[in-house]
Amino acid sequence: MKTKILSFVAILAMSFAASAQIDRSKMPEPGPAPKVKLGESKKFILKNGLTVIMVENHKLPRASVNLTIDNPPSFEGDKAGVSSMMGSLLGRGTANISKDEFNERVDYLGAYLGFSSGGAYGASLKKYFPEILELMADGVKNSQFTQEEFDKEQKITLDGIKSDEKSVTSAARRVEDALTYGKNHPYGEFITKETVNNITLKDVKKRYNSYYKPNNAYLIIIGDINPKKIKKMVKNLFSDWKTGDLPNYTMPKVKNVETTEINFINMSNAVQSEIAVMNTIDLTLGDNDYYAALLANQILGGGGTARLFQNLREDKAYTYGSYSRVRQSRYVGTFKATASVRNMVTDSSVVEMQKEINKIRYQKVSEQDLKDAKELYIGNFVMDVQKPATAARYALNRELYNLPENYYETYLEKINAVTIDDVQNAAIKYFKGDKARIIVTGKGIEVLKNLEKNSDYKINYFDKYGNPSEKPEMTLPIPDGMTATDVVNKYFEAIGGKEKAMAVKTTMMVSNATIQGTPLVMTTKASAPNKTLMTISVMGNTMQKVVFDGEKGYQEAQGRKTDMKPEDITEGKEANAIFNDLNYTSGKLTRIEPIDGKNTIVLKIGNEEIFYDMTSGLKVKSVKSVKKPDGKEVKVPTTYGDYKAVEGIMFPHSIEIKSGPMNLNFKIVEIKINEGVEDKDFE
Asked: What domains can be seen in the chain, in order of their start residue?
């Protein structure tokens, strides 16, 4: 019955998620396309090569400054991460001011100032802007790279790598880039603990002295400014920034596969699959078909009304979102379509994603599709262009790509000029459905069988660092003679012994969790053999209640009371309210599966799988098939941890329930044994 209660909790999570959704099925009526005016820019170049662009905007008494170091991507090899560490150390004290004084001054002004390997950014009220500009210049030119701060940053970086070690998403992104670009490419290499440990303070200083130069830098200042005064300030602050020769580096060429293939990365802890369909492209802002590529992508995967989203989420319910993007670049661009899906529908999701990519390539979009895409894109563009950061980026783009001065003023005209044929031609050219890498990161034991069966593509296997690997083992053998009874008995030994467990007649548990920022309290009461009560309260108000008195039961939510179905009553009668594991001796041992590096033995009974740690004997996970209110069936994993003794019996004090994109992390704050429970609780 306990699993039934957790199932109701999972359904509650789904209802929360559903209520939070916005109905976007109806397109708002568009108004006329507005005129875009970024403001007239003024430009000058210092003798050291620093290019300065100023744009006046007097709507608010604020100003921002963006410094961009226009370094081409460079390969860092066995010292990957050195540029990132260099950027993190900028501004941590200079020759003129300590780190603490620097940060305190920025905070006092109510401003923002940050540095990176690619430049710096600052913003403040108009009256404080001169000081922010001065602090930025000081950080850029005079940062002190100390051993103390280097050691701190190295440890932070290593801690980050360690915490990401088991992240399926991090592994997916890492291998996607490594396979698409190659590990010997700046876009394909990644940071490891080995490369970070190779980096020294000397390397960081060398990186700064080699690449952080004014002669490959742009300073964009936007806001409520006086250009004459700003020009004078910039000259005073940045003219002594020393120029220098920049290292030469030739990037290796990248190429797509000749025929579409699946690249599979096995992650045994994956509860869902990360799918990416990727290919490189040659596309820049100045290209004639750039606008058509944007609209083709808008139609395919540009948001909640796009085809990928409508197919995989709205129609099939495979995922909570599927999207695509086109990334233009002066060096190498990419097309990428993504989705995070349930393991059991990974193969079907791959099929549907490819179907939508090929559909937009080989079938012309409708007039309405193109009209809607234009309206959406124009609306987003107009909202985005109001932001100072966007204005700075556009001003910089005009310089980097040698664009006409009126490029963005005429942007919407060019968007509106795109035709149906233009969209199809761009889709054929840039969405290479026939020469793409389909990169799937997931649990092989749950995914590969169907992926192999339902896919015509060749499957290559890689580890989580992008190294070729063998096909993962689909199962691990169960030790000879081991039975479900053996596993259950070991579990009871682990929690304190079956004798102590059988002496427990009632339990009362109180646990806390948060759902979408809202704190909730779950109280469960149980009385042997099979009486149960569960209430979920939000801010003192009961939101959901489930009661079973041993013969019948009901659930109550949102003011509606519903009697239990016959199958739920049968399950409740057969269950053990306190230790349901007593009923698992009739189950079947199916496999041994690693979880977080530890082997667990999987016991299947009915529509539920229970995972027991083979070393400790403790229950660490269960996966139950649950029917949602709409009748669709989903798998709901529940993880048990933080076991603590209560009156000599081990209980998990951390219970995590995953339902779609929602994670419910319950922390048990109180457990009472043989007290706090009365018969009237189950009425």
From this structure: 2-17+477-682 (2.50.20.10), 41-166+182-238 (3.30.830.10), 255-389+406-462 (3.30.830.10)
